[in-house]
Amino acid sequence: MRSFIAISLPPDIKDALARMQEKLKKSGADVKWVAPANIHLTLKFLGDLNEKKLEAVYGAMEDTAKNNTRFYARIRDLGAFPKVSSPRIIWAGIGAGDEEIKKIARQLEESIARVGIPKEDRPFSCHITLGRTKSALNLDRLTQDLTKNGKDPEAEGLGFDIEKITFFKSTLTPKGPLYEALKEASLRAI
């Protein structure tokens, strides 16, 4: 089962991020945009997970959640990997809450490694993927729009509470991935 662990975003945050996508779409760049309903913050991509490891992963999620308190996060800006001047992945970054999210991701990474799922080669980067470029078509314009909208004033008001982490099953279809939440683990109340 293809799966990942993520932070779900409230509907109003997804709507605001969809509006940011709409601004960037005007560039005419060849981008596969994440469907607004699917926008989330990935903590750990698990890949194809067999049923034997599922309970152990759930246990790692529960332990991580118990060790972290609920907190507030805020969208900070727009950017791209590897860099804005050569965008491959377009993202929204996190300001407030960044350190707390990184701590949760590190703990998950360690716990899940003990289950036999390899650690990531790259360090965790706290971001919300909005789209992936498919070709070089109009990349110059997209770069300009990212630079211009990087500090989107709308992002200043995009705050939300993080109270849980979620295990998602991901099914790939010709129309795009379908995500199904299978398990949630609540962070400790303050």
H/E series: EHEEHEEHEHEEE
Q: In which range does the helix fraction lie?
A: 25-40%
**Main sheet: strands, sense, barrel:** 5 strands, antiparallel
What sort of overall outline do the alpha carbons produce when their principal axes are compared?
Answer: globular
Radius of gyration: 17 Å
Q: Quick summary of this structure?
A:
The chain contains four helices and nine strands. The chain has 190 residues and is of the alpha+beta class. The strands form two sheets. A five-stranded antiparallel β-sheet has the order 2-6-5-4-7. Strands 3-1-8-9 form a four-stranded antiparallel β-sheet.
Overview of the molecule:
The chain has 190 residues and is α+β, with helices and mostly antiparallel strands. The protein has a single domain, classed as Cyclic Phosphodiesterase, Chain: A. It has 4 helices and 9 strands; from the N terminus they run βαββαββαβαβββ. The strands form 2 sheets. A 5-stranded antiparallel β-sheet has the order 2-6-5-4-7. The chain is globular and about 45 Å long. The protein starts with a strand and ends with a strand. The mean pLDDT is 93.
